[in-house]
TrEMBL record:
<dbReference type="Pfam" id="PF03704">
    <property type="entry name" value="BTAD"/>
</dbReference>
<dbReference type="GO" id="GO:0043531">
    <property type="term" value="F:ADP binding"/>
</dbReference>
<dbReference type="GO" id="GO:0003677">
    <property type="term" value="F:DNA binding"/>
</dbReference>
<dbReference type="InterPro" id="IPR016032">
    <property type="entry name" value="Sig_transdc_resp-reg_C-effctor"/>
</dbReference>
<feature type="domain" description="OmpR/PhoB-type">
    <location>
        <begin position="1"/>
        <end position="101"/>
    </location>
</feature>
<dbReference type="InterPro" id="IPR027417">
    <property type="entry name" value="P-loop_NTPase"/>
</dbReference>
<dbReference type="InterPro" id="IPR001867">
    <property type="entry name" value="OmpR/PhoB-type_DNA-bd"/>
</dbReference>
<protein>
    <submittedName>
        <fullName>SARP family transcriptional regulator</fullName>
    </submittedName>
</protein>
<dbReference type="InterPro" id="IPR002182">
    <property type="entry name" value="NB-ARC"/>
</dbReference>
<comment type="similarity">
    <text>Belongs to the AfsR/DnrI/RedD regulatory family.</text>
</comment>
<feature type="DNA-binding region" description="OmpR/PhoB-type">
    <location>
        <begin position="1"/>
        <end position="101"/>
    </location>
</feature>
<keyword id="KW-0805">Transcription regulation</keyword>
<dbReference type="InterPro" id="IPR036388">
    <property type="entry name" value="WH-like_DNA-bd_sf"/>
</dbReference>
<dbReference type="GO" id="GO:0000160">
    <property type="term" value="P:phosphorelay signal transduction system"/>
</dbReference>
<dbReference type="GO" id="GO:0006355">
    <property type="term" value="P:regulation of DNA-templated transcription"/>
</dbReference>
<keyword id="KW-0238">DNA-binding</keyword>
<dbReference type="InterPro" id="IPR005158">
    <property type="entry name" value="BTAD"/>
</dbReference>
């Protein structure tokens, strides 16, 4: 290795010889190096190393172990150092060691120099120096080496320098008016130290200075909650002062002496919804005029509670008073309130004499808007049915705000000027636990496991949680485990809520009784679907109705009882599902329900097979039989559409496999599992692949052909998980079965898979032998694709054996054959290996050109994981040539292809970019 030695400790401990990163050995050796680097050239005693490596009870050989680790590090830094030589990098001084290091070779020293220069500068120049200094940090000092929650004081001190610099950088940026330059560093530091009030105060000030006051207010609420929750304290003076600075901008002019104040009382136990409240704050703080907020969501999700709380929170901004009306849009006992009735009440409240109120609706609305044009008022409209019911109640000009709630999405609100829709979903786990804590107090902390299960069984629906809490408080002898027991005995049915059952059933039944008979039937069948979200096609199969009819029925249900999150999928809340399940068991016969499940399984089995074919699998699967119930597969427009369908239905398909395996439909289970294998491979979901196909294998029973196919599939998952021995075991089992059944083409696939594993094990001669055996078996069976795949494996082995010209010729032949077959995956794989072979002989122009072709091919095939692998190779070549900008661009493209996954390739890319 050549080139200067450089080190990094502001994050994971790393070292380089020139551009080549060094292997720093064991964790103990990296800890020793970390402490030396944190001292930045200062001496470290052997006793300190012993304390670092062994918190207590060091072994008798501890000192010798330290000396041995130091010696191994020294030889890594100076590989040509003669035995027992002192060395010139890691030097010994009596009972101490130190690194001979300078600013050019250590990021910590560069950081300190930049901070010192920033402190001596002013204005934007100082801010830029701080930015450069803070950009050197990639994580906490010596991250990844700490265990048992213990961090060495030296590393903590270095971290402290970072946070001190962040505070100084914020102050300088606020003075210079360019806080955006260091805002990312401030955010990151605040995440690392959530209880550092001085740091959090500066985050609030920085956000406000960057025009993000609503975000700052939301951040303060989060900090306040965390301080109370974790430390049991209120924010200190500095943090409160930062908050007060934000609120000063919200002061409103005093209103009339006696404005109307009609808001219902705020709920004493209101919790959560911080994200929605923050979104409202940000919307109102923005430049766009806001006249209405329409909050929609399913029954019981807490729309009214949130809107009342929000109204109280915003009331001071509307000094001319607050109006309120329950429009009874879904009331079962009374007719819905008409707009004229609501306007009449509002006009009375605004001081208009009853005799002066016009008779016509349009005249009432005109008078109402004229009055509001001169005032700033807040109007709360609860339980709206539709746009026609509320459109006359919206203000025109002026600064008033309407907050409206509805179980339906109010379509007209989207087109109204200044009107914004807010969809309310169920609570998060943390919010649900907070709600129960506010209601039940210490009982929640005393039994967190029971609380967690109660939250799950309530589906995080605020109404259900509140009813359970009320039930628990009202019966002093009823413990939380006892409540959980009642819920568990109900098996997810509404009756598990005891006396509360009538309340929930009444709420849900109001909407159910308004359905047409066909929509009501589909509603009762929906709980038979195995997951929370379903497509229109799946609903059609479940109901046994044409697709067009299903669309109409779902639209009717979606107006009240379903949610359409997007992409043509529908979702039903768990408690509504329980209610529908009870109705189904009461009104629908067992035969009808069983037929619905069969139709649904037929749809998923046929569609999964059709989608699998478009992913261009190298290994064919047996085609499923047509449905006896007339169900057909979903139609697909191409590979991308098939991949998108698998992604959308992955959770559903996985559950179908599990349910079919449990309920005596083994062929459905293992066929869907096998149909998903190419999707799992293309999206790098190797553990999911193992789990789903493993379930299929358990269901296959005594079907030998199915078991062999499943073993071979599991071998592929093992290969990508680097479990090569496990992969070989599965392949041997598959080969034995195929041999017994006389399925020679299937044997060819197994031989080729074994060749792949031998290539990974660098047993290239064995790989050639197995690949050639596979090629002969494929040729005998007339399987051109299989024979071409085997040729590709032979070419790769020849390249690794140094026979590059021979390998390149085979790659060219394989690519032509894959192109004739229309196999984009095979073409891309061949191109990638051909490029790699050119790079092995230092023909980089050819290598780069063909890698670019491989990227285009894999993108055309929708194979993101393989696209990313090629881009990583391209970036590595650029980095090796000193082209850092091009390398980063290629690696970022690779990361974008992986779209947030945590696959081994994604981790490799993030590691490269961190350098």
């Amino acid at each position: 290795m050549t080139g200067p030695l450089t080190f990094a400790v502001l994050g994971p401990v790393r070292a380089w010889h020139g551009r080549s990163e060094m292997d720093l050995g064991t964790r103990q050796q990296r800890l020793i190096l970390a402490l030396l680097l944190a001292r930045a050239g200062g001496a470290v005693s052997v006793a300190e190393f012993v304390d670092l490596l062994w918190e207590s009870d060091p072994p008798p050989s501890a000192v010798n172990v330290v000396h041995r680790h130091v010696g191994m590090l020294r030889r890594r830094f100076e590989p040509d150092l003669p035995t027992r030589s002192a060395g010139s990098v890691l030097v010994r001084d009596g009972a101490q060691y130190r690194l001979r290091i300078d600013e050019q070779s250590l990021d910590l020293l560069r950081f300190r120099r930049l901070v010192a220069e920033a402190a001596d500068s002013s204005g934007e120049a100082a801010v830029e120096l701080y930015r450069q200094a803070l950009a050197l940090w990639r994580d906490r000092c010596a991250s990844g080496l700490h265990t048992d929650g213990r961090t060495h004081p030296e590393f903590v001190a270095v971290d402290g320098e970072r946070f001190t610099a962040v505070r100084a950088a914020t102050d300088a940026a606020l003075r210079a008016g360019c806080v955006h330059v260091v805002l990312p560093a401030i955010r990151l530091a605040a995440e690392y130290e959530p209880l550092d009030e001085a740091l959090q105060a500066r985050l609030l000030l920085a956000l406000a200075a960057d025009g993000r006051r609503a975000e700052a207010l939301a951040a303060y609420a989060g900090i306040e909650h965390r301080l109370a929750d974790e430390l049991g304290i209120q924010p200190g003076a500095e943090l409160r002062a930062a908050r007060d600075g934000l609120l000063d901008h919200d002061a409103a002019a005093p209103g009339p002496a006696e404005p109307p104040a009609q808001l219902p009382a705020d709920h004493p136990y209101f919790t959560g919804r911080r994200d929605v409240i923050a979104a409202v704050e940000e919307l109102l703080a923005g430049g766009q005029r806001t006249t209405a907020l329409v909050v929609d969501g399913m029954p019981g999700v807490g729309k009214t509670t949130l809107s009342v709380h929000l109204s109280h929170r915003l009331a001071d901004r509307y000094p001319d008073g607050q109006l309120h009306a329950d429009l009874r849009g879904f009331d079962s006992g009374e007719s819905a309130m008409t707009p004229a009735e609501a306007l009449r009440g509002f006009l009375w409240s605004l001081g208009v004499a009853p005799s002066a109120i016009p008779a016509e609706l349009h005249a009432q609305a005109g008078l109402y808007r004229s009055i509001l044009a001169e005032r700033r008022m807040l109007i709360l409209l609860d339980n709206c049915r539709d746009w026609d019911q509320i459109r006359h109640l919206l203000p025109g000009a002026g600064g008033s705000l309407v907050i409206a709630t509805s179980r339906r999405r109010i379509a007209g609100a989207a087109g109204a000027a200044g009107a914004f829709a807010l969809h309310l979903d169920v609570l998060s786990d943390d919010e649900a636990r907070e709600l129960l804590t506010r209601r039940l107090g210490d009982a929640v902390a005393a039994d967190p496991a029971a609380v967690g299960e109660i939250i799950v069984r309530c589906g995080r629906l605020p109404l259900a949680l509140a009813l359970v809490a009320t039930r628990s408080v009202g019966r002093s002898g009823l413990s939380l485990p006892a409540v959980l027991g009642e819920l568990a005995e109900a098996d997810g049915r509404l009756s598990g809520f005891g006396d509360a059952h009538a309340d929930l059933e009444a709420i849900f039944s109001w909407s159910y009784r308004a359905l047409t008979p066909d929509a009501a039937r589909l509603f009762r069948l929906l709980p038979l679907h195995p997951a929370g979200g379903l497509s229109t096609e799946a609903a059609a199969a479940l109901g046994g109705v044409p697709l067009r009819a299903a669309r109409g029925l779902l639209a009717e249900l979606g107006a009240q009882l379903l949610v359409e999150p997007g992409e043509g999928r529908w979702r039903m809340h768990d408690l509504l599902r329980a209610y529908a399940a009870e109705l189904g068991e009461e009104h629908d016969g067992a035969a009808e329900r069983a037929a619905a499940v069969t139709r649904l399984y037929d749809y998923y089995q046929l569609s999964a097979y059709a989608a699998h074919l478009l992913l261009l699998p190298q290994v064919p699967l047996p085609e499923p039989e047509p449905s006896a119930h007339g169900v057909t597969a979903r139609g697909f427009t191409g590979r991308a559409d098939a991949t998108a369908w698998f992604a959308a239905e992955q959770r559903v398909l996985t559950e179908v496999v599990a349910r079919a395996a449990r309920r005596g439909r083994p062929r459905t289970a293992w066929r869907i599992a096998l149909a998903m294998q190419n999707f799992f491979q293309d999206t790098a979901q190797f553990k999911q692949w193992t789990a789903v196909v493993g379930t299929g294998l358990a269901a296959a029973g005594d079907d030998p052909a199915a078991r062999a196919l499943l073993h071979r599939s599991l071998a592929g998952a093992c290969y990508f998980l680097a479990d090569l021995d496990g992969g070989l075991s599965h392949l041997e089992q598959a080969r034995e079965i195929f041999d017994r059944l006389g399925l020679h083409a299937e044997q060819g696939h197994v031989e080729n898979n074994i060749a792949e594993i031998r290539l990974e094990q660098r047993r290239y001669a064995d790989a050639v032998r197995h690949a050639e055996a596979a090629r002969e078996l494929f040729r005998a069976a007339g399987n051109v694709r299989g024979a071409t795949t085997a040729l590709l494996a032979i070419a790769r082995a020849q390249g690794w054996l140094g026979r590059h010209a021979q390998a390149l010729g085979m790659f060219a032949q394989a690519q032509r054959q894959f192109e004739v077959l229309g196999d984009l995956h095979g073409v891309g794989t061949t191109q990638a290996w051909m490029a790699h072979t050119y790079s092995m002989i230092d023909d980089l122009p050819h290598a780069m050109a063909i890698w670019e072709q491989a990227v285009d091919t894999f993108r055309g095939a929708g194979a993101a994981h393989h696209t990313a692998e090629v881009l990583v190779a391209v970036g590595d070549v650029h980095a090796g040539n000193g082209e850092a900008g091009l390398a980063r661009r290629a690696w970022r493209e690779a990361l974008a292809e992986l779209d947030g996954t945590d696959s081994p390739v994604a981790r490799q890319v993030r590691d490269r970019l961190a350098r």
